[in-house]
Write a structure and sequence with these properties.
Shape: elongated
CATH topology of the domain at 1-124 and 455-512: Rossmann fold
Number of strands: 15
CATH superfamily of the domain at 1-124 and 455-512: P-loop containing nucleotide triphosphate hydrolases
CATH architecture of the domain at 1-124 and 455-512: 3-Layer(aba) Sandwich
Largest sheet: 6 strands, antiparallel
Oligomer: single chain
Radius of gyration: 47 Å
CATH class of the domain at 1-124 and 455-512: Alpha Beta
Strand order of the largest sheet: 2-1-4-5-6-7
Number of helices: 18
Length: 554
């Protein structure tokens, strides 16, 4: 139930703190006093759209906060999944709207998304505003009322879960089929690209090796000339000894005089070292000279191979052969994946068939439960309407197959006749007063079977008066025995039935602003408020007496 409500800087309300008792709570007030503002504040807590127009004049933000007594296993599960403390059965729900129109939501001081706020509020409070009678034409609302009456909660949850699972499998299957179609459409292209890259026999680092070989082959003559010149200086040429031979002879000459001049021994050793080093250089030069190929054929082969690799690199937007090899492997994987994807599709088709069969079974069971509940449901609503002085009225429910959905594969329509003949769609044949009585009957039934903690009525008694209004008040009062009911009304017959009575009023502040407030009235004050509802602007003694009689007979 709604334990307390705090509102700050919301439209015409500067600051308001109010506690609500159990049972039937009546809210009255002059037209335009701000009763609908209270409803709007509660709607914010239920996740309604917020914008800057909700702020009072000159305020930077507005706050709406409510404390609920909430002891519900499903509610506890929702909060646990969202990592929100359950508060030991007390739930503090707050919504803050800024001047920019953006809002923040909190449950037990934990920030939460509006979607969670809506889900939680749906288990805490049901708000029926004046335009909600239009729900009578909404197939989803009609079906939900019947399901509440039939006690289909567990079956509905199982059906929703099966529908969700079926949709997930269907989505995965559609995605796999689409992916396979794309792969098959591109298969010839992908295979041709993979084959060309595979036939290229790509080797990491090959391009660098080829580039070096190409430079050698393309400049072979110049290289050989340079090597020959270098070797010519080291080797003998006719009668001219080479550098190596000259160093050898010089070393021998120094060896002969070493016994006379010992210091030349070190010089001889250095000459030997230089000779040995030069001899190694000569050998390497001869090896290099032997490796240099003057083959135009090999040069052509190397350049053709480089041209192929450069073309492939450019075509696939790669910088290195390693990247090109990765591209080749991706094409290979795509060709292989087509086979794996076909197997995946076969598995998903089996899953879809099983999920569809499971869902169809639940739909059939749900349809049978609804069908069994139809006669009792129709009769219960008819009895309630006749109690509300629609003596010859008939209420029936037509059920027929519909497209599949989370609530099964049924569609129902509410049929009504005030004369008992030829029932027709309720939206086409019911007057405003009849719609109010039908909606109240349905809400009373939902309250009894759904276990809603708090129900808010905004002038559900519109379009009725007299004894009908009295009976509507009794029905609402009866609902208040099992749950908390807040009823905004203009009818004294209804207002007199309340366990508590609050009056909304509006006054002008010294600075010229209109401000709404609410307070509880008791005793004589309540009597005078009922009298005002009876007589209007001028309260007559007869109205006061009538008000006392209404209050004493509640």
């Amino acid at each position: 139930m709604l334990h307390s409500l705090h509102i700050e800087h919301y439209i015409l309300i500067d600051s308001l703190d109010i506690s609500f008792p159990e049972g039937l709570v009546i809210i009255t007030g002059q037209t335009g006093a701000g009763k609908s503002i209270l409803l709007g504040a509660l709607s914010l807590l239920a996740g309604a759209r917020a914008d800057a127009s909700a702020l009072a004049e000159g305020a930077d933000s507005c706050v709406v906060e409510a404390e609920f007594d909430a002891r519900d296993a499903e509610l506890a599960r929702l909060l646990s999944e969202a990592d929100v403390e359950d508060g030991g059965g007390r739930l503090l729900v707050r919504r803050v709207v800024s001047r920019s129109g953006r809002s923040r939501s909190f449950i037990n001081d934990c920030p939460v998304p509006v979607s969670l706020l809506q889900e939680v509020a749906g288990r805490l409070v049901d708000i029926h505003s004046q335009h909600k009678s239009l729900l009578l034409t909404d197939p989803r609302f009609q079906l939900s009322v019947l399901d509440h009456y039939a006690g289909n909660g567990a079956a509905l949850e199982a059906c929703r879960e099966a529908w969700r699972a079926l949709q997930e499998v269907r989505s995965a299957l559609a995605g796999a089929r689409e992916q396979l179609a794309r792969q098959q459409a591109d298969r010839e292209y992908n295979e041709a690209q993979w084959r060309r890259l595979d036939e290229a026999a790509l080797v990491p680092g090959e391009l660098e090796t080829l580039e070096e070989e190409q430079r050698s082959l393309a400049n072979a003559e110049q290289i050989k000339e340079g090597l020959a010149l270098a070797l010519g200086r080291l080797l003998p040429d006719g009668e001219t000894p080479g550098v190596v031979a000259a160093l050898k002879e010089s070393a021998r000459a120094l060896e002969h005089i070493a016994r006379f001049l010992p210091s030349v021994t070190a010089l001889r050793e250095r000459m030997d070292s230089a000779r040995i080093e030069l001899d190694d250089i000569r050998a390497e030069l001869e090896t290099l000279d032997g490796r240099v190929d003057l083959s135009p054929e090999r040069l052509a082969q190397v350049e053709d191979r480089m041209s192929l690799l450069y073309t492939l690199l450019k075509k696939h937007g790669c910088q290195t052969l390693e990247e090109l090899i990765a591209v080749r492997d991706r094409y290979s994987e795509m060709l292989f994946d087509a086979t794996a994807l076909q197997d995946r599709i076969l598995d998903l088709e089996k899953e879809e068939k099983a999920a569809a069969a499971h869902y169809a079974g639940l739909c059939t069971a749900l349809r049978e439960a609804r069908r069994k509940a139809l006669p009792g449901f129709s009769q219960a609503v008819t009895d309630s309407l006749r109690y509300l002085e629609l003596d010859r009225s008939v209420f029936e429910v037509r059920m027929e197959p519909a497209s599949e959905g989370p609530a099964g594969a049924d569609r129902i329509a509410f049929l009504f006749s005030a004369t008992g003949r030829d029932p027709a769609d309720v939206s086409k044949c019911a007057s405003g007063g009849e719609l109010s009585r039908i909606m109240l009957s349905l809400k009373a039934m939902m309250a009894r079977f759904a276990g809603m903690p708090t129900l808010v009525f905004d002038e559900i008694d519109t379009g009725v008066s007299g004894s009908v209004a009295d009976k509507m008040g009794r029905m609402i009062c009866e609902m208040g025995r099992d749950m908390q009911v807040l009823s905004i009304t203009h009818l004294p017959q209804v207002a007199a039935k309340g366990d508590a009575h609050f009056v909304v009023s509006k006054h002008i502040t010294p600075d010229g602003r209109a401000v709404s407030s609410i307070r509880e009235v008791q005793g004589e004050e309540r009597t005078m408020e009922i009298a005002r509802l009876l007589s209007g602007a001028t309260i007559t003694p007869a109205a006061v007496q009538n008000a006392r009689e209404l209050l004493s007979g509640k």
